[in-house]
Prior knowledge:
The complex is a heterodimer of chains A (90) and B (143).
Chain A: E1 2-5, E2 19-22, H1 27-36, H2 41-45, E3 56-60, E4 63-64, E5 80-85, E6 87-89
Parallel strand pairs in A: 1-5
Antiparallel strand pairs in A: 1-2, 3-4, 3-5
Chain B: E1 3-7, H1 8-21, E2 27-34, E3 40-48, E4 60-62, H2 64-76, E5 80-89, H3 97-102, E6 108-115, E7 118-128, E8 133-136, E9 138-142
Parallel strand pairs in B: 1-3, 1-9, 5-6
Antiparallel strand pairs in B: 2-3, 2-5, 6-7, 7-8
Amino acid sequence: MAKIIIPTPLRKFTNGEAAFESNGGTVKEVVADLVASSAGLGEQILDGSGNLRSFIKVYVGDEDISALDGEATSVDANAVISIVPAIAGG
Amino acid sequence: MQQLVIHKEAEKVMLADAVDTFPNECCGFFYGKETADGARQITEAQIVVNSKEGDQRRRFEISPLDYMKAERYALSNDLTLLGVYHSHPNHPAVPSVHDLAKALPYFSYIIISVMDGEINVLRSWRLNEEKGEFEEENVKVLV
């Protein structure tokens, strides 16, 4: 199963779990699977249309999915997916 | 006030980075453990490149790739990514409006004030989501 790493600021929605596993075949399916089993998480990472918010990036392995097929990027059973929030300040 | 204990070696890494990077802002991650009551202990700090384009004396940014690596590092070393540090060159160790605008819940935000190239003070802050403001943490350095 593909593994998705939950960033620490979002782990309160996953009962403290650092990772989640899914049988989804694309990034979109895995994220949907995660959101369905983590109450409150969807509002944090998805917009009103169900797409990933612009300040959230997703990586499959070392690749940003925006350089691949976006949310349609396929993932295999060994894939490690990362949800990445923007970090900045002044 | 939440407790934040910093191991001396981790503190050294952050303070040295703040001085070395002056007059620009430095930034990085720190790792450790959190107990059930919310108290945190930082055992390790890691310098990260300030990827902000333009004036780095007033802004910092961490690349998504560096963030991704940090979470992976924490997982593989049985640690928790507890937060982000950065410096305020010639400014107090108090969060700016930009810090608040970009603040994520949960994380501790350590700010190091560097005045004229020398360490002034290190303070740490955590976002109170309900109030939409930072609350200071009680920092202790473990020698």
